[in-house]
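Design review, sub-item: ligand-bound model
Attendees: FS, YL, KQ
YL presented the inputs for the manganese (II) ion complex:
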Amino acid sequence: MALEEYKRKRDFSRSPEPAGVVRRSRKGRQTPVFCVQKHLASHLHYDFRLEHNGVLLSWAVPKGPSLDPSVKRLAMHVEDHPLEYGDFEGVIPSGYGAGIVMLWDRGTWTPEVDDVDAALKKGDLKFTLDGYKLKGSWVLVRTKGARWAAGGADRSWLLIKHRDEWAGPVDIAEFAPLSVKSQGDFADILAQENPEIWISHRPAQSGEAGALFEKIIARAIQMRSDRTGRSRRSTHSTRTKTPVARKRR
Ligand code: MN
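KQ shared the predicted structure:
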């Protein structure tokens, strides 16, 4: 496991994503971490990541995790990410993955098998999550018969919730849509940066993602102008309330 593919795909002089290194031994906490990043790029998806052997094993889940055990969510295995990525939230202005990344959930995970590497090789990894939004028992299982798909060979898995006290019919993506890091939504995250970057060339022009971007960019720009307006007004009102100003009246 290494980060060559991760590094090859990114230009760290242009992306705020962490370059990172493989951390074979981590001092202090022993329980491995997991995170889920909600990523609005050319399409909206959820990146599901499990710490293992000093990196974050990663799957892109187009529809996000479901708490309903009868729902199997496609999870495309993607390149390992550095552990530092587990804290990342922000705006990737251009290049690979250009878009907005929200830290949607995080916590720790425990394998329900003795040998994680063997389970991954077999294509059947059972585990328990202890996050803010996702809890209880889950499984990632590699799909069979997808080998014909161009570039999809061995990469497609299913993320499935096991039946337990944390399973249920609630749509968790809709019920708990915000960041566990900043408590904000995509527009809040974009408003921290420069929402104007995508006025002419946002990462998705059409379809659902395009429409989402259009709304988010407009809201982020509005938030920034409200903020500027408010700070101007508050400067003004402070001045009129000074004793000197009152005495003159
Ligand atoms: Mn992604």
